[in-house]
Structures are given as structure tokens and as C-alpha cells.
Amino acid sequence: MAQLIDSQVKVQTSITGHNNIPFFQVVGERRSVRKYDNSVRIADEELLEMLTIAAKAPSSANMQPWRFMVITDEELKAKLVPIAFNQSQVAEASAVIIVMADLEMYTLAEDIYGASVKAGYMSEEVKTNMVANYTKMYSSLPADRLRELVAFDTGLVAMQLMLTARAKGYDTVPMGGYNRDGVKELLGISDRYLPTLMLPIGKAASPGHQSTRLPIENIVYFNGGKMD
User: Fold this and answer.
1) d(Cα 138, Cα 171) in Å, to the nearest integer?
2) What is the number of domains present in the chain?
3) Gene3D superfamilies this protein is in (predicted)?
4) pLDDT digits 0-9 by tens, 26-42
């Protein structure tokens, strides 16, 4: 794990094979797509590239609690369909990414901060203090607070993954409606890991539905303005 984290510090990540779509266009074009072209395959290397970019998302104390189970096997995707309440996009998408939270992410604090020392981002003394303090803090949190915290962080990485996919010309749909215990049983996932989102990714067979948003003046308040 330390070697993996160390290599990620050194690598200069770039998005390949796309036309550098402007950021605001990426945001504006993202849709939740539920119909996919099941003839499209995404290479493992490209999936790893997108996940590497997504994993640059922020997290509490840089603990990076997200973990990803990537399903590309057709038989496994078929087995996920009933677990996802028979939503067809699970079988049709090129891949299904199960975004999970590691409830023991603090056990990697030495690796995470050690990589920062090697990169010159912090001193050994600062690292030692941070490892001790954060390990103590996170390991003593009430279970419900810890779950809330890591689930929040996985939401950040999931959004970044969806935007990265769109920048590369792929489509996604975030799914919270599935049997989490069923996923854990099928894939042999231990209770250390909390499945949060199921994220199909591929090429749309039909466009995602257009949707509206509340007027910005209805949801933004400045300087303590009265909230209805």
C-alpha cells in the first residue's frame, strides 16, 4: 500500500484520449444515464486512469477512505441486477463501480503521511504527530459518526469520478437504490467496508433526461439572511 501511495504522489496524471472539454461544459453535459450501449468496452487501464484522477478529491485529514470494486465481468454484472432491484443499466453499462468507504482508513495513516514526507510536503515530526492524533481520533469515534464521515468523503470522490468520466466522453448514473448486504455477500466484502454508491459507467444508448434546478435565489443566503 505504501508503494502504491508513494507512486501516486510522483505521477503526473493527465486525461488521455479526449478533446479537453471545457470544465463548465463537462458540468453542464453530465446527466444520469440509464440506457447504455452494451457493445462498448472500457479498458482496465482507462478505468484506472479515471479512478486515479477521481481519487484526487479532498477528504477529511486526507484519509482517503474510498475504495472501489470495479465490475466488468458480464456474469457478475448480471448477478448484480436483482441486487439493484432489476435496474437494467447495471447489466448494460461497460462497468459498474461499487464505491465503498473503509471504516478503518486510519490504519493507513502511516502510509499516507509517510508519502507526504517523502514528497517533501511535511516533516517527519509533523507526520509522527498527525499519525498519532488522527489514529486516536478516528478509532475512538462513535460508529454512526464514523460512518457519516466516510460516507461524506466517498460522495466527494464519486462526484469527481462522474465528471472525469464525462470529460472522457462516458456517461454515468449514481445509484443508491440497491441491497448493500447483497452486494457484500456476492463480492465477499467484509464489514470493514461500507458500500455507498453503485456507479454504472459507459456510453449512453439514449440521452439522459433533462432536468431542472431550483432558482438559485431560492437556495442561496448571504450573511445570515432569513431562511424560509
Assistant:
1) 35
2) 1
3) NADH Oxidase
4) 999 999 999 999 999 99
